[in-house]
Amino acid sequence: MTPCLQLHDLSVQIRGQTLLAGVDLAIGRGELFGLIGPNGAGKSTLVKALMQLLPASGEVLLEGASLAAMNARERARRLAYLSQDDRLQWPIRVRDLVALGRHPYRGSWWRGGQAPGASAADHAAIEQALHATDVWALRERRSDTLSGGERARARLARVLAVEAEVLLADEPVAALDPMHQLRVMELLRARCRSGQTVVVVLHDLTLASRFCDRLLLLDQGRPVASGAVDSVLSSDNLRSVYGVRALIGEQIEGGETRRYIVPWAVAHDA
Ligand SMILES: Nc1ncnc2c1ncn2[C@@H]1O[C@H](COP(=O)(O)OP(=O)(O)OP(=O)(O)O)[C@@H](O)[C@H]1O
Q1: Which keywords, in A-to-Z order, does the entry hold (predicted)?
Q2: b/e per residue, 102-117, with b = 16+ CB within 10 A?
Q3: Is the CB of 37 under 6 A from ligand 1?
Q4: Cα 164-154-166 angle, rounded to 5 deg
Q5: pLDDT in tens, 84-103
Q6: Distance from the CA of 259 to the center of ligand 1, in angstroms?
Q7: What average pLDDT score do residues 122-134 get?
Q8: What's the pLDDT tens digit per position in 135-169?
Q9: DSSP letter, residue 138
Q10: What would the DSSP string read from start to end of 152-220?
Q11: What pLDDT is recorded for position 250?
Q12: CA separation, residue 206 to residues 103, 141, 239 (Å)
């Protein structure tokens, strides 16, 4: 079966500096794929290159078709992207922000799903995304009045409302409290079960271990380890790449093994 996403020798160079080097990857439909690595490792660069937002060499295929050759509107319908940058360009109402997720389906600018011609599918997608991210009660608020975590959830709602085949989320849980972190990860898992493919950038290693099917560990723009979560999140990798000594624990609950990874101390010998 053709993988949903294929990256062949994806590399990014800016002003002679290599930000990403030789990433080869095949991600299956319905997979929850995690990108991890320390600050500056190249995770956002990889996601942006995948989204064709940076000049890159190599190739990205979606269901076997070149993304570079795809027109922008089709790309915007098929891949939804949550950037790490949470600056708001203007004080838009939450429900209007989320409605922007339906823009790739429209020919021209429209507001909040209220414009004539907004379809039942648009309304349903917007409403579902507002509920799924727990911002329904905030939908009439100006997004510049939200807390950091509330704003992060509203931004995620916009991306969910696209209902794209592929969702690329750059640190979607970084600003969230523990309950909302779990809710968002469970939501991403549920989206994968219903056939969406998700690529997620994470710093929380326990969430990466618990929710992702596979991981790619990047360091200084290069892939260091890729594959099953347990092999990627080894003590050696945590020490050599992150420079931390981690406690890796297991607890049996309901007959299942729960694994957790707690960065405990700076590994001064790394
Ligand atoms: N436009 C640019 N020009 C020069 N250097 C850049 C540019 N964009 C990113 N970089 C550098 O490339 C490296 C990778 O950046 P990137 O944003 O991909 O890291 P990251 O893994 O997402 O990190 P973080 O965990 O901090 O978000 C960093 O050293 C960054 O400073």
Answers
A1: ATP-binding, Nucleotide-binding, Translocase, Transport
A2: bbbbbeeebebbeeee
A3: yes
A4: 15
A5: 988 877 889 999 999 999 98
A6: 30
A7: 96
A8: 999 999 999 999 999 999 999 999 999 999 999 99
A9: G
A10: HHHHHHHHHHT--SEEEEESTTTT--HHHHHHHHHHHHHHHHTT-EEEEE-S-HHHHHHH-SEEEEEET
A11: 93
A12: 35, 33, 16
Count CB-CB contacts under 10 A for residue 14: 11
* Residue of the CA atom closest to atom 29 of ligand 1: 40
- The Cα 269–Cα 239 span in angstroms is 9
In DSSP terms, 11 is beta-bridged to 57
N-terminal to C-terminal alpha carbon distance within the chain: 41
- The Cα 248–Cα 254 span in angstroms is 20
Give the pairing type, strands 256-266 and 244-253: antiparallel
Distance in angstroms (rounded) separating the CA atoms of residues 165 and 29: 9
Q: Which of 53, 41, 65, 23 is nearest to 240 (CA)?
A: 41
Helix (H) or strand (E) holding 46: helix 43-50
**pTM of structure:** 0.94
Q: Which atom of ligand 1 is nearest to the CA of 203?
A: 25
What tokens appear for 41 in the block?
Answer: 């490792």
Joined tokens for residue 28: 């299956």
Shortest-distance Cα residue to atom 25 of ligand 1: 39
Extract the tokens encoding 102. Answer: 């339906």
* Top mutation candidate among 12, 43, 86, 204 for ligand 1, by most atoms within 8 Å of CB: 43
